[in-house]
Structures are given as structure tokens and as C-alpha cells.
Amino acid sequence: LNVYFKTNRTGYDNIHNADNLLLNYLTEDIYGSSIKYRSAIVGAEYDDYQSNLVPYKMLRYYLTWQGNYRQKLLFSINANWRDYKIPTEETDRLYKDINGMFSYAFNRKSKLDLNIGYQSQQGKQINLDLFTARLKFSTLIKQLTLVVGVDSYDRVYLDNQKTNYIGAYIQIIKKFKY
How far apart, in Å, are the Cα atoms of 175 and each of 55, 108, 112? Predict the structure, then answer.
């Protein structure tokens, strides 16, 4: 169990002839707690950020888990949930994301990699749903590396801008010694 407090106080007192978009001061207090069990960490933070530009209060939950299984499967999973309360704006902002990486080694020469991610943003003029994925197989044949992969993403921005993409590629790589 980890409990922590971080603080930051910065002031710029002697600024002359500057517009209101210049940072005059900031005060930030972060209160947090996390629990670590083996290779997983789960935590929560409260961030009270005050400044003359964009003050906010944020609540964040997060998860990090990484490890391996019998030296063949490597994995990493990261997730965040951040809820911003911004008094200067009409709506609050909510950010959610999760990312995963998985790599499986068939042998010393061949492996399969998978990277996936999802990101969501909700708030005034920032609504976004984005899913990305990449699958890649690589193998060493004699002195050539062969890579075959597929990339994909699906994006919906501001509820009316939609983009879908799927692409495949093949790479043949030869490394020369100098």
C-alpha cells in the first residue's frame, strides 16, 4: 500500500505589460493511494490544480499490469479514467483509455505482437472514440527478416466525423554488417 501527497507552488510576481494569457501563479496538490500486488498496480489520485489560466479538480483511477508467462508470452495492460471538473467551462471532461501489448515468441526466430488501444474523450468540442489495433508477425529466414502486419483504427470524432482504416503490409529486411 502506498499513500502519497505531492504539492507544487509557483508564483510569478513581477510580470509587467503582459496579457491575461500569461501564467501568474499555480498551486497544485495531489493526494493519491495505490496498491501493488505482484506485477499489478491499482491506484487513485485527486488533483487540485489552481492557476489564473485553467483551474481544475481531477479524479483519476489507474491500473498497470505487466508480466510474462513462461518467457514466451509478454504482456502489458494500462488503463486510466480521469474526470476533470473545470469551473471556467460549461461542461466537465472525462477521459478514458486502455492499452494492451501482447507478444508471443514461438521460438528464437519468430514472434507475434499485438497492440490494441481504446481512447474516449467526453466534453464540449472534444468528443472522441478511438480504437486502434496492430498485429505483426516477424520471423528470421536465413539472413532476412520477414514482417507481415495489419493496422486498423476506427475513429468517431464529435459524433459526425467517422474514419475507418484497415491496412496490411509486408517488409523484407536485410541487415548488412559494415
Answer: 52, 17, 21
